[in-house]
Specification:
Length: about 150
Amino acid sequence: MKNAESYSFKDEYIKLLKLIPSFDHLTMVPIHTEITHGNTIQRPDRSIMVIDWDEVRTGPAVLDLGVGLINHLVTDTHTIREAEARAYFQAYFAIMSMSEEDKEYIFWAAIYWALLWIQWFKDEQIPRLNKVKWALENKNKITGLYK
């Protein structure tokens, strides 16, 4: 809400924020908060290692799963990187189980992160807001990547 004060689209931003349900009742686990391509490296044995643990905290697992869903796996032209998204979720669920109830919140965690990240893209705020609106209109396509 604090970020909204500086946006020309303040009212629309707040309206979108209010769509996001509470995550407080979901399963809490240690979370990285930014599991993205830039924070992983591949070892010689082809296994993947997550790096940059300076923001680790306890929170709902859906936050880790949502961080890259819209920000990285949906392009600026609103194309879904479907193969990458499916691989990401399959790999995660192969080692970590998640209740179907918790999975229902992954999309909303992605909306949360996409709205939050608008603040760091001063010259791209409107396109990023439009990406969030596109994601809301295409929720079924996006949630189909991990259900």
